[in-house]
Design goal:
The structure is a homotetramer. By secondary structure, the first copy, chain A, is an alpha/beta fold. Chain A has helices spanning 40-52, 72-86, 101-114, 131-144, 155-158, 164-170, 186-196, 212-217, 232-243, 247-264, 273-284, 302-326, and strands at residues 23-24, 58-60, 92-95, 118-121, 149-153, 176-181, 203-206, 222-223. The two termini of chain A are 30 Å apart. Chains in contact: A-B, A-D, B-C, C-D. The interface between A and B is large, with 41 and 41 residues.
């Protein structure tokens, strides 16, 4: 298979990581080889790829990063190597969600020692806490964590929504930087923005990339967009267009993001299709290995790989128009 | 608070652990003190309490045992101490469910070294695998695990049902002992029994104690009954009555189990009420500490404790009739 | 296609309808021809078929009867003809569930004029009322209905559980005869029995036939069993065995009911498979037409019909043993 | 209680109903008096109120209109009177969703005779059809309906999503005007837009008003906004601002819509709170009666009414800024 190269849409150089936690912060996939070990050179290429695309931060060990599926040794290795490669060019965020609070805290300690900027924590996802229990859980963590943190709303996987009262309480937690919302429920997102308007600087990032421009229109702060692993400058382009008030351009680029979603994430029939699609597309571009952690384990087989390759070519043929404008 | 003592309903001594995995196998709570550490003497008392009640095995680090909420050091301590206290009198089963397969395997290794008889594994509970992915996951585990194992169906918490095909496949996994079903869906349970009828010795245990007698009537092998932490001989009584074909007695005792459920598990308003209720009742009986692991953390406060105390007295006043017969 | 005849397992003649609302009360399918009109002669044959099988009542226009899918003229025709054919031999119950209360009441009036014995009502199923709203709704109906009534718990289709407080309130509604529970949640069912134990004569019937014997063991009053359209005497056999305390026989027959469920309801891949399977089996037996009301409309096609025919033959070959005992 | 008057934000007169089905098409509430009968003068005032606000059409007997809860006589009266009052000034759309197809068709006939412009139909909501069954259902309706129609996606109440294939098929149904999406899932909405881009003129309207501006940014055609019963010109203002490319103004007005949602729809604790809130606010403005159809029946009691009154005053105090700009 020949490697497919995408044009770089993004010619303006972003300022080095300011720690503002605004903009595009890709949820980095964890490149794994067939043994389930970290593909180290792949990780390096991937990080350079997205930094070249102008992203404003990196989020590792989140859902797209298959964090909860990785053994703790692997998670620690991923943290240490990522910090080493990034070298402070942009902020690094690390997912520490676990069902055992003490394991979350232990990983946060390791992250702090490795030079991570902030951690990200979703509700524990085996037992479903009631809202008052969830608030107590976050309050305890807020005291115990060695780093600033984002809350992470991901009800499809954790079974629990971070409710309005929990968001309100998080405003008075000094180290709470904001909320990452992956619910796909933009009404929830907008109500969160309304609540957080009381605390300037509290960031609300959107998960589903299909809603990036809309979330920004509503006043959001940026996107943790899975597709930015593959086409970082496209997502950065939407963010920058909205920052400049160029809504027309933002809408045009956002339509390309929908194409990415429809073409790369709908191959295969399971929930794992999104992460598999992203990893496979990165592999097609010669960036990294694309094996999955258990329980998914297998990467796409030949038929699906072929389909991803084709869709990738189609997507790249749609991008130059965008690139032309960006240039 | 004075200690409330329950009469021992069970006068016949059970045979020592035969490893048959039939009968009442309580999902042991994990006694925790206010620091979140293991209440070691409480654990000892608890184990003696349930063994005195005639139970046929112990299941630790399951849902009732708050397994996924405990740090790995604590889980390892719980395994080692339980094995030490039990000393081979009954089989010990250990929950090793985790979202990271490698952590499940590592814990299973520790369990094997500690003398555990079997492990119990539910689907990984962050990502929801499709059925074919789930089957692949179990097949990989079946090769890698150092101990025989039960599958554990718990869709309310794992989001995934272990489907009929997965059960069918497990019949040909040599080390698979059977299925523990906590779905509360007795139609599913009976269909599982029908599938497993092809493999004599494959055990199907029921989680919800409210269905113990009915599951046995349908041909089931026993119960992993939370309430057997508190009143072990009551649950053993149902099992033995059904074994003897004394359906009338089984129904009579099963009605008392429904009383336990309605009276002890409905105090407080959250999903955590069941485990909190069991732990609080054990504390009222002077058996062990009753703090919860995060995210629940808090034990019942005064009002709820008082209510549990009253319900416990009521329950105990209902038991002598049963005891009389058992004697 | 030649007609497949099943042996009649039931030789004892049941007493004529006593209005006791205990026993097997089949949820009659509504025989429809290819035009969507009532298959009148099929309805007659079907009713004689199930009455010959010894059933203790008939429930028309329920879920299995596709009640909510039928136009009101058709529902009225079904009521009038059924009452005419039954002629008081057993009680007739009619489903009047609707999203518009006034249409439920209008149908109940028609039912009362037609000689129906009781109506059956589930929560309105478009808007999901909160429990207090649901209780208010039932209280209003209890005043307005011209006939005694059963509540009908069917949360998979109505989105709302009839909660414990609503059951408790129904005990003091003079015309409320009891509860039909199709939740499949036997813990709920048993808690309902516990609540209703305060009111002797309050009946609790089980929907899912796979749980018939277990529900009776727990103290239930009978089953609204879809498969009793096809093999009425099998279901009556379970009921009578439990009435006589012959648990072994009940379990043996109940296993055959599970066979009916696994063999006839799992053909085809959709939720409509159960009703389609029952109707197709009746057609194979030469009893009635088997078209479906919209939105399902289509009956099984050739491949599925063939499969049903085969399964039906297998089932009938399993029945004689049962018949032998019954004789 | 004195009547609260809202300023009219909308000074530009909209063109008379062009049948384009773009813009703001309020889902009209059904004004009911304490007997459950139509408040006829209230209906007249309500229609004049929203037409004065510049709305582009009316949708009656939808979810907000409590259509499925109303008896058929009342639904027919509502259709006839609405058409009479509107007199062709804007298009009138009528919800005909029912679980019985024949009743939907009968109501559609009545609608056609009354001069209605189009009907709106959601999946039947008792049985949940599979996608192929749903497509068959829509195809049959498309042949049989006497009027052009919109599909209506409302999975929270119908339990079924109108899937991508069903949307695709609807493009080739000549009389299908488009899709009304009330899922609240903007990713779905955008994918629907992408599919429908093949058929110019196919309209996609959004239900949840909190997403109105965002849906328009994505290329949507308008909103079926419940709050437009109360403040029609606010919603028309968002639509017109987006039409002119004045994104800043659209965002500003959209923020006020979020205020309407947070302040009027969150009073009371049940799902019925939205419709109750809208009706109560209309009553506070002296427009119409605010009783609810069963199962909700009750309107807000004193405490909630007071709260709505206060919130209404607050909202009106926020509007003049908007009005100033509009003027």
């Amino acid at each position: 298979m020949s490697i497919i190269s995408a044009p770089d849409l993004h010619l303006k150089t972003s300022a080095p990581g300011t720690g503002s936690y605004r903009g595009i912060i890709p949820p980095l996939v964890t490149p794994l080889n067939s043994e389930g070990a970290l593909d180290r050179s792949g990780l390096e290429k991937l990080i350079e790829h997205v930094l070249n695309g102008g992203v404003h931060g990196l989020f590792i060990l989140g859902t797209t990063g298959e964090g909860p599926s990785l053994g703790y040794d692997l998670r620690r290795e991923m943290i240490a190597r990522t910090c080493g490669i990034v070298g402070g060019r942009v902020p690094v965020l690390v997912g520490i969600t676990d069902t055992a609070e003490s394991e979350s805290l232990r990983l946060a300690e390791h992250a702090a020692e490795s030079g991570v900027d902030a951690v990200v924590i979703a509700p524990p996802y085996y037992f479903a806490p009631a809202q008052t229990e969830l608030i107590g859980y976050f309050e305890h963590l807020a005291e115990a964590l060695p780093l600033p943190f984002f809350l992470y709303n991901m009800p499809a996987l954790t079974k629990v929504v971070i409710g309005e009262e929990a968001i309100r309480r998080s405003l008075s937690m000094e180290r709470c930087l904001g909320l990452k919302d992956s619910s796909g429920d933009l009404v929830y997102y907008k109500k969160a923005l309304r609540i957080a308007s009381e605390k300037p600087g509290y960031r609300i990032l959107i998960g589903p990339e299909e809603l990036l421009a809309e979330s920004l229109l509503a006043g959001g702060d940026g996107g943790v967009s899975g597709g930015a692993n593959v086409f970082p400058s496209l997502y950065v382009g939407v963010f920058e267009a909205m920052e400049c008030g160029d809504f027309t351009e933002a809408v045009r680029l956002q339509k390309l993001i929908l194409e990415v979603s429809c073409r790369l994430y709908g191959v295969g029939q399971y929930g794992s299709a999104i992460i598999r699609g992203i990893k496979c597309a990165l592999h097609c571009q010669g960036i990294c290995e694309d094996f999955m952690a258990p329980p998914y384990r297998e990467r796409f087989r030949t038929a699906e790989r072929k389909r991803i390759e084709e869709e990738l070519r189609t997507l790249i043929s749609m991008l130059p128009q965008a690139a032309a404008v960006a240039a």
